[in-house]
Specification:
It is a single chain. The protein has 330 residues and is of the alpha+beta class. The protein has 2 domains: 4-170, Ribosomal Protein S5, domain 2 (2-Layer Sandwich); 172-314, Alpha-Beta Plaits. It is 34% helix and 23% strand. The protein has 9 helices and 16 strands. The protein has helices at residues 66-83, 106-120, 127-137, 190-196, 203-208, 210-222, 226-245, 256-270, 294-301, and strands spanning 4-8, 11-15, 20-22, 27-28, 32-36, 42-49, 56-59, 62-63, 88-95, 149-152, 163-167, 174-181, 276-278, 285-290, 307-313, 320-321. The strands form 4 sheets. A 6-stranded mixed beta sheet has the order 8-7-9-6-1-16. Bound molecules: ligand DP6. Residues 13, 16-18, 26, 32, 104, 106, 138-140, 190-191, 194, 280-281 line the site of ligand DP6.
Length: 330
């Protein structure tokens, strides 16, 4: 069977996914909205081979550890069941952004894996099915399948919980200036974090108000209304972190520099610069602005103590096959 290589971008959520109705199926407690990050990507090659005795999974040139391998093998198992065969596969995945920077790689990783592995299994899944498959590996990965600005519908069951593009990359020239901040301690991974969300008394309030935030964010993107966008994006991030901080046990992802960047961004916006910030399950701050304001945004945050580097990402395209002629894996 031929190898296939796919690439996918990570994404930054403007309305966050935090908490599941089903952890096993990754059915989210609320819908979410994100933008793909151009210039950052995972490339994954998959080849099913009838002669291979076991799945071989390499990530960034090394054999994957048992937990990561298991997540990949689960997706391969799902495809083996769909394609009605039992062949094992070689999987090689490379990130072009260094792991350990705190830029989440599971979204791009499972989106690229879903596409490369399904094609290598001889399956042509349409976008919604591919998004659902990616979701089973990592929830946010379902949003890295479609292009540009993307909404993941919470859905009512496995079948209708997938992501669609709500606007193409060229719709709005937003830039994510990612302020990389070092974490002093290894942070709790998002999978464990989702499982704690319901222990916070604030999660029910966050969920009850989610339809309003989704509506405002969708409208802000479609109308390119940055003032509306900035307010709702920061509010949503703060709500998620309030839930994290009040979970049992509590999760604190912010470092002092995280808050310093958030405050500098708020002050600059009050002074007229179109910028806003959002933070995922780590200390980095994603500073979002129109392209015309990106130089000023970088200058604003790059010298804040604790900021190690600022990486820029424009709006990215969908997960796609790399058209290189197929080469067998060794
Ligand atoms: C804070 O998709 O990484 O980035 O489904 O367990 O892999 P798993 O979790 P993951 O959670 C992402 C959480 C977030 C918010 C978001 O991207 O929506």
């Amino acid at each position: 069977m031929l190898p296939f290589t796919a690439l996918a971008h990570p994404n930054i959520a403007f309305i966050k996914y935090w908490g599941n109705r089903s952890d096993a199926l990754r059915l989210p407690a609320n819908g979410s909205i994100s933008m793909n990050l151009d210039g950052l990507e995972t490339r994954t090659t998959v080849q099913f081979d009838p002669l291979l005795p076991a799945d071989v999974v390499k990530i960034n040139g090394r054999l994957a550890g048992s937990a990561s391998r298991l997540r990949v093998v689960r997706m391969l198992d799902e495809l083996r069941a769909l394609a009605s065969f039992r062949h094992c596969a070689r999987v090689e995945s490379l990130n072009d952004f260094p792991t350990g920077t705190g830029i989440a790689s599971s979204a791009s990783a499972f989106a690229a894996l879903a596409l490369a592995a399904s094609r290598s299994a001889g399956l042509y899944l349409e976008q919604a099915s591919l998004s659902r498959l990616a979701r089973h590996g990592s929830g946010s990965a379902c949003r890295s399948i479609p292009a540009g600005f993307v909404e993941w519908f919470a859905g009512t069951a496995d079948a209708d919980s997938y992501a669609v593009s709500i606007a193409p990359p060229g719709h709005w020239d937003l830039v994510d200036c990612i302020a990389l901040i070092s974490a002093e301690h290894k942070t709790t991974g998002s999978t464990e974090g989702h499982a704690l969300a319901a222990t916070s008394p604030l999660q029910s309030a966050r969920l009850a108000d989610a339809p309003r935030r989704l509506e405002f964010c969708r409208r802000a993107i479609l109308e390119r209304d940055f003032a509306l966008f900035a307010g709702i994006v920061e509010e949503d991030s703060n709500l998620m972190h309030a839930v994290m901080m009040t979970s049992r046990p509590p999760l604190f992802y912010w470092q002092p520099a995280t808050l310093a960047v958030m405050q500098a961004v708020r002050a600059a916006r009050a002074a007229g610069l179109p910028v806003c910030s959002t933070v995922d399950a780590g200390p980095n701050v994603h500073v979002i602005c129109p392209a015309a304001a990106s130089q000023e945004a970088v200058a604003l945050v790059e010298n804040i103590p604790g900021v190690r580097q600022v990486r820029l990402a424009k709006v990215g395209g969908p997960a796609r096959l790399v058209e290189d002629p197929p080469r067998p894996l060794h």
